[in-house]
């Protein structure tokens, strides 16, 4: 059906163009022979093609442009006729005898243009006559194009100030009146199009109208270009007349487009000074008009005006722009009761951006906007509309982007209240934006109040706002979110120990609500932040003034114990054990033996009761040995208890090779090179001998189960331990013992049952080269290694 209509239109257009070109040909021939009467006759016939009602605006425009080109040539011919002595007044009268009104008026406008240029009559009189005459065409499409032609031929002939057609004192009023009258009539014709034809073609008509809107809008552009229209005239006459037409037409398409035109074509300073008049119209517009977009564009233009014209800022304060805009938005929302949440939030988002650009120092304005937004959202629950959600994110992001400082946003009391209306996922997005801002700008958050406010903002990442199944979460996204929280915790700092301790307590309160899945991410940074404070207070045992409330390392360690205990609910024993050992080392540096012993005790309990995986046990044992070796705070009794436990754990590992490595590592617990009170050579040797026995047992088991003795790597590793203690001066490690071990390894390597192992061979060869190197050093070292035969 539509294809058939389009084909018919093409035929009608082709017929119209053919008729136009044919008459134009005869018109040109008459013009070439200076035959005025024939030129008028054929031009009238040519213009009769524009009387068609069969074409759509798009096709009619093609026909009109061809006629327009011919009319320009006809206008040149009329000028030449006037030069040749033809009376332009007579010509003006003559064209009015054309048979049909539409060709008559096109010819009248064309001659009128020449008439004005001749200056034989005042421009204002001719323009008034033409604009009145054009009322003869009331068909919307034909009337719009006719008046558009009038506007086109007259725009450079208006009696403006400084124009060659300037008349008396009221010349500006005349020019203005002409354009306004033409605009009013064109708008009426444009609106009338909406009500012609059947209801089922409403969408088609709206599309056609949108194609024609620029014809109407050009009048406002012409008005803005009139030099004589100053602020006073604009305020007193132009704007009220235009707005009156906008309101009275009661057409949503026209109202939206014309309001947008007013904002775009007239200067920003005019908008600022006439803000009250302009804003007063918005509540009177049709409910279906997209007011949010127009108002947002107005605020954006004013914001840009303030940004490029610093001298204009006092004007904004003088006219109370923020207050007027805020009131106008409230009235618009009130007038449009069914305005969706998206619309209201968009308006407040634009107002907030306006406030931040024009009045960046007035945080109370920003908070007022957020408060108004909360008022609009109240009673709606979580916002589910994705468009509205996006606008709320834009609203909340604006202060952070403007100030590059989350601390400033924390001063806005209504900020967290707006966030409460976001759904869980968007709340997380917004929380991430907040954290990223802190990271990017290296923002220092140094007080408990600010930390409390900050964690209230990011609670979407700290805890589950509603019951959420963890298996629904994307694992990588979750890790990234929690790692960002961990980085944030590390950035919280205050040089005052008392304030820092309060910050740590506040953070602890929040992260402990996070549930078992989050704690492994958030507990470690808090522990290390606390240990940093411990290092700061290192050496301070008691407050010299006896203040019980004062922060001391002991007090922090008590808190740390409670924080790490929370991991037992996860459970995350491996992580908890590492943290206990870190705390034990810090307590050692603070000379707090009971505290260090307690942390070790907790680590041992975890090892015994929670860590059952053999690989995890091996890692844990070596961590315990390494940490215990560095401890110097323990007395003989406590140290013996802990080392005895450790060696016991080492000997009970599942696999013999793992037992062997752990036991020979324990030898370092009895001989610490830089501590004279911890050099028990005999017990160190016992550990090595025990390790040898376990290594030997491992060889025998391998022989029984696999038929081969396996690798000698363990023996070579033990040999290296022997050499270490021999070099460090352990009197129990003798040349004979080393020599015996070398011979044992050599024999094992030559045995038929030993599995060939190139790595072990290279390791042993490297060890022997080292002995040889030490022998060749000379001096005390060479003398010491001399008796060893390799």
TrEMBL record:
Q: Check the record and name the InterPro entries matching this protein.
A: Vps35, Vps35_C
Query: What domain of life does the UniProt record list for this protein's source?
Result: Eukaryota
Q: What is this protein called?
A: Vacuolar protein sorting-associated protein 35
Task: Briefly state the protein's biological role.
Answer: Plays a role in vesicular protein sorting.
> What UniProt keywords apply to this chain's record, in alphabetical order?
Cytoplasm, Endosome, Golgi apparatus, Membrane, Protein transport, Transport
Q: Name one GO biological process term.
A: intracellular protein transport
Gene that encodes it: LOC116210765
The record gives the membrane topology as: Peripheral membrane protein
Q: Name one Pfam family in it.
A: Vps35
User: What family does the Swiss-Prot or TrEMBL record give for this protein?
Assistant: Belongs to the VPS35 family.
- In which compartments does the protein localize? Cytoplasm; Endosome membrane; Golgi apparatus, trans-Golgi network membrane; Prevacuolar compartment membrane
GO CC terms: cytosol; endosome membrane; Golgi apparatus; late endosome; retromer, cargo-selective complex
């Amino acid at each position: 059906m539509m294809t058939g209509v389009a084909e018919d239109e093409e035929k009608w257009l082709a017929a119209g163009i053919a008729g136009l070109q044919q008459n134009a040909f005869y018109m040109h021939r008459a013009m070439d022979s200076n035959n005025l009467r024939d030129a008028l006759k054929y031009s009238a016939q040519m213009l009769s093609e524009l009387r068609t009602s069969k074409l759509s605006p798009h096709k009619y425009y093609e026909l009109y442009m061809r006629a327009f080109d011919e009319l320009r040539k006809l206008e040149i011919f009329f000028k030449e006729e006037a030069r040749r002595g033809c009376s332009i007044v007579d010509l003006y009268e003559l064209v009015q005898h054309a048979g049909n009104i539409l060709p008559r008026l096109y010819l009248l406008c064309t001659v009128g243009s020449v008439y004005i240029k001749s200056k034989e009559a005042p421009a204002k009189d001719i323009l008034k006559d033409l604009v009145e005459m054009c009322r003869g065409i009331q068909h919307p499409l034909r009337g719009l194009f006719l008046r558009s032609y009038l506007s086109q031929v007259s725009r450079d002939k208006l009696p403006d100030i400084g124009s060659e057609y300037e008349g008396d004192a009221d010349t500006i009023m005349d020019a203005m009146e002409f354009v306004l009258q033409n605009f009013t009539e064109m708008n009426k014709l444009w609106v009338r199009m909406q009500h012609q034809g059947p209801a089922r073609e409403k969408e088609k008509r709206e599309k056609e109208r949108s194609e024609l809107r620029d014809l109407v809008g050009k009048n406002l552009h012409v008005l803005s270009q009139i030099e004589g229209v100053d602020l006073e005239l604009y305020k007193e006459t132009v704007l009220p007349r235009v707005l009156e037409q906008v309101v009275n037409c009661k057409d949503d398409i026209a109202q939206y487009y014309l309001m947008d035109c007013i904002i775009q074509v007239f200067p920003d300073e005019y908008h600022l000074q006439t803000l009250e008049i302009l804003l007063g119209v918005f509540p009177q517009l049709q409910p279906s008009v997209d007011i949010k977009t127009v108002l947002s564009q107005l605020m954006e233009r004013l914001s840009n005006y303030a940004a490029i014209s610093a001298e204009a800022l006092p004007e904004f304060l003088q006219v109370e722009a923020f207050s007027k805009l805020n009131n106008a938005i409230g009235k618009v929302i009130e007038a449009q009761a069914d305005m969706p949440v998206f619309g209201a939030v968009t308006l407040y988002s634009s107002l907030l951006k306006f406030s931040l650009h024009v009045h960046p120092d007035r945080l109370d304005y920003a908070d007022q906007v957020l408060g108004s937004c909360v008022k609009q959202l109240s009673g709606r629950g979580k916002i589910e509309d994705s468009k509205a959600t996006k606008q709320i994110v834009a609203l909340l992001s604006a202060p952070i982007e403007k100030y590059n400082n989350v601390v400033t946003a924390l001063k806005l009391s209504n900020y967290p209240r707006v966030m409460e209306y976001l759904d869980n996922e968007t709340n997380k997005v917004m929380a991430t934006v907040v954290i990223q801002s802190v990271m990017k700008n290296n923002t220092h958050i140094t007080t408990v109040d600010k930390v409390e406010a900050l964690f209230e903002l990011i609670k979407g990442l700290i805890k589950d706002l509603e019951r959420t199944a963890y298996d629904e979460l994307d694992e990588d996204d979750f890790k990234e979110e929690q790692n960002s929280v961990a980085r944030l915790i590390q950035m919280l700092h205050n040089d005052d120990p008392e304030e820092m301790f309060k910050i740590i307590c506040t953070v602890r309160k929040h992260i402990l609500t996070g549930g078992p899945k989050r704690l492994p991410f958030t507990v470690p940074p808090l522990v290390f932040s606390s240990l940093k404070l411990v290092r700061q207070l290192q050496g301070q045992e008691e407050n010299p003034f006896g203040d019980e409330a004062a922060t001391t390392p002991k007090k922090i360690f008590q808190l740390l114990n409670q924080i790490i205990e929370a991991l037992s609910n996860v459970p995350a024993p491996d992580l908890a054990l590492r943290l206990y050992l870190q705390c034990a080392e810090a307590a050692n540096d603070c000379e707090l033996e009971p505290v260090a012993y307690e942390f070790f005790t907790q680590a041992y309990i975890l090892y015994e009761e929670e860590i059952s995986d053999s690989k995890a046990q091996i890692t844990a044992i070596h961590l315990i040995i390494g940490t215990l070796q560095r401890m110097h705070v323990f007395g003989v009794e406590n140290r013996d208890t802990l080392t005895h436990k450790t060696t016991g754990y080492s000997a009970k590992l599942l696999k013999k090779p793992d037992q062997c490595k752990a036991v020979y590592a324990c030898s370092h617990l009895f001989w610490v090179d830089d501590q004279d009170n911890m050099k028990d050579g005999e017990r160190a040797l016992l550990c090595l001998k025990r390790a040898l026995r376990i290594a030997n047992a491992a060889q025998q088991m391998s022989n029984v189960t696999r038929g081969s003795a396996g690798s000698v790597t363990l023996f070579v590793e033990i040999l290296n331990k022997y050499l270490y203690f021999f070099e460090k001066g352990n009197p129990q490690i003798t040349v004979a013992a080393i020599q015996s071990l070398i011979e044992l390894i050599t024999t094992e390597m030559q045995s038929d049952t030993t599995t060939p192992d190139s790595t072990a061979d290279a390791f042993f060869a490297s060890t022997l080269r080292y002995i040889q190197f030490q022998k060749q050093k000379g001096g005390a070292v060479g003398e010491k290694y001399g008796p060893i035969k390799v």
